[in-house]
Write a structure and sequence with these properties.
The complex is a heterodimer of chains A (393) and B (175).
Chain A lengths: L6 H8 L1 H14 L3 E3 H11 L3 H6 L3 E4 L2 E4 L1 H11 L7 H20 L3 H38 L6 H23 L6 H15 L5 H54 L19 H15 L10 H10 L7 H11 L5 H11 L5 H7 L6 E13 L4 E12 L1
Antiparallel strand pairs in A: 1-3, 2-3, 4-5
Chain B lengths: L9 H12 L4 E2 L3 H8 L1 H12 L4 E2 L3 E3 L8 H19 L4 H7 L4 H10 L14 H9 L3 E3 L5 E3 L3 H19 L1
The chains are: A mainly alpha (393), B mainly alpha (175).
Chain lengths: 393, 175
């Protein structure tokens, strides 16, 4: 044994707080780097000799940063149950490596080769479970604060965080572990069945190795399925948080920036006129078919229509136009006065027409007062109460 | 399309047309909702052919949207609901679950509105009245219970989704 073999464990043991913080920093960004300044601050706090750190090769200097040895990082993270969130790409890599090793084992005929490839597969399968375990632990830790709604984050921040984790981690990870023909789960099943086949008609060593490989593959299959279930449940939870906070964040935006935002016209009535020109022409066509011959229809121009209205008793009260106009003028101090003024402006004012238009009163919330006002018509005068219209019903 | 009324009472048909053209919601649980679900295709064509209006729906509600009308009531509902949700979330409850399930009254809502200091600058009114509640009911947004209490109908989800859309719109403004 190397006489310095105990140096690294001793160093880690002596400066465990320093090492834990170091690992926390490098794991936060997902790489193994720490800047000079960050390391210096940590080292100064706990009086750690950086030279020893470098001598033991726990860290090494590259350009302007320090790279911390991955094995040490993993060991400390394992001790503290603090793992880096593995990128979906690094999880996906196992699909390729396992698939390559599977092909090799499939083709190997020599005993030595078979045992070697099986060993590699067993080790790779174990690493794969480890990365799944650490990913889910870290993911659940990372999202705990988000889920507990500790009030530190605004709705907008929670929405952004949830969206980001879903997009960057949870959805891609879920895709990797889903049980589809092109994913890793069928591959693990194939490894298990290959181990089963290869264990027959072979020598004892191969048989034992294959049994171990099969057991390992089955364990990993089970833990991958379990991981899949945890990921799905995480996905649902995060999607719910995302949706809730999107709604809440939109609500707050609405309060803050009403003037810049355009909501859909919910609760708006439609100014509908069913008797459109199209309807008129369709009616003519229908009539022609019925009479089996062309008919000539003179359509009056707008001016002609106007003079017809003025010179006859014809009055078509288009209520929806009045309702819209009145709604936009709310609150109106005296609805009787408003209708009178409006009809006058439209050249529609007469006592009879005015009475028709009073059906508008049914559409609005009106408060009558004791004050009176006189309205003048061609044929009469009306002494009406002052009635304020505040809202549409 | 063959112009034939579906098998249903003519009165229901008239109520459906009147309600939807008034901008009201027809949420699940109403008789008119059943008629609309059972004759969905017919009504879709009916509204499009007759009025050039798109009949919108979710699994829970039928409605039509008129983007050109006066927005006063829409805005009022969006404001009251936004403050309500913000205050409920401050209490640590899930505001959406509360809006969808809890009973409210004018008093409880006014309490939330008056306590909302955060947004007092943004709103003109800090109280709602019976008129507002009656309009919510006629719009199909609430269902009255006993003792002045009411619950929001599923139609309120259309408003909640509207905030979701606004979040997207705000992201567009910020970008």
């Amino acid at each position: 044994m190397n006489k310095n073999a105990a140096s690294i464990p001793n160093f880690i043991c002596n400066y465990f707080r320093f090492m834990s913080d170091l690992v926390r920093i490098v794991n936060k960004d997902g790489d193994n780097y720490i800047t000079h300044e960050q390391l210096q601050i940590l080292a100064d706090r706990d009086s750690v000799p950086i030279t020893t750190l470098l001598k033991l090769r726990i860290a090494r200097e590259i350009d302007d940063v320090y790279e911390v040895d991955k094995r040490v990082v993993n060991f400390i993270a394992f001790s503290n149950n603090e793992f880096a969130l593995s990128s979906p790409e690094s999880v996906k890599k196992f699909h390729y490596s396992l698939s390559g090793l599977y092909e090799k084992l499939l083709r190997s005929t020599e005993t030595n080769d078979t045992i070697m490839h099986a060993d590699h597969l067993i080790s790779e399968l174990r690493d794969f479970t480890d990365i799944l375990d650490s990913s889910i632990t870290r993911l659940l830790n990372d999202t705990l604060e988000l889920k507990e709604n500790s009030q530190q984050f605004s709705a907008r921040e929670r929405f952004d965080t949830a969206s980001n984790i879903i997009k960057e981690y949870v959805e891609p990870l879920n895709e990797i572990v889903e049980d589809r023909p092109d994913t890793i789960l069928p591959l693990i099943r194939n490894i298990s069945s290959l181990a089963m086949q290869k264990s027959i008609n072979y020598d004892k060593n191969v048989e034992n190795k294959m049994r171990r490989l099969r057991i390992q593959a089955n364990i990993v299959h089970e833990s991958t399925e379990l991981f899949g279930r945890k990921i799905i449940s995480e996905l649902f939870t995060l999607r719910k948080i995302k949706k809730t906070n999107s709604i809440l964040s939109g609500a707050i935006s609405w309060l803050e920036k009403q003037n810049n935002l355009t909501p859909k016209g919910l609760c708006n009535r439609f100014p509908i006129k069913v008797h459109t020109k199209e309807f008129f022409f369709e009616a003519i066509e229908e009539l022609e078919i019925l009479l089996e011959g062309d008919i000539t229809v003179d359509i009056p121009t707008k001016d002609e229509l106007h003079s017809m209205r003025m010179n006859s008793n014809y009055f078509h009260f288009d209520k929806s136009i009045y309702i819209d106009k009145l709604e936009n003028s709310l609150p109106v101090k005296n609805i009787f006065h408003w209708i009178h003024k409006e009809m006058k402006a439209n050249d529609e004012l007469s006592y009879a027409n005015y009475c028709t238009a009073l059906s508008l009163l049914d559409e609005f919330h009106i408060t009558y007062s004791k004050a009176r006002e006189i309205l003048i018509f061609d044929t009469c005068k009306l002494n009406i109460p002052v009635a304020e219209a505040t809202n549409i019903l | 399309m063959e112009f034939e009324y579906p098998e249903k009472p003519k009165k229901t048909h008239r109520i459906i047309v009147e309600k939807l053209l008034k901008g009201e919601f027809i949420p699940i649980g109403k008789n008119e909702y059943e008629t609309l679900v059972n004759n969905h295709e017919w009504y879709k064509s009916f509204f499009l052919d007759s009025f050039n209006i798109e009949l919108l729906h979710t699994e829970e509600v039928f409605y039509c949207v008129n983007p050109t009308g006066g927005m006063s009531f829409t805005k009022e509902v969006l404001t009251v609901l936004a403050i309500l949700m913000y205050e409920i979330s401050k209490e640590g409850s899930d505001p959406i679950v509360a809006i969808q399930n809890k009973e409210f009254s004018i008093n409880t809502i006014n309490k939330y509105l008056s306590e909302s200091i955060q947004f007092s600058n943004y709103i003109s009114k800090t109280r709602i009245d019976t008129r507002f509640i009656n309009k919510l009911e006629s719009m199909g947004l609430i269902r009255k219970r006993i003792d002045d209490k009411f619950t929001f109908t599923r139609a309120i989800n259309i408003f909640l989704n509207e905030y979701d859309n606004l979040t997207k719109e705000v992201r567009g403004l910020d970008a």
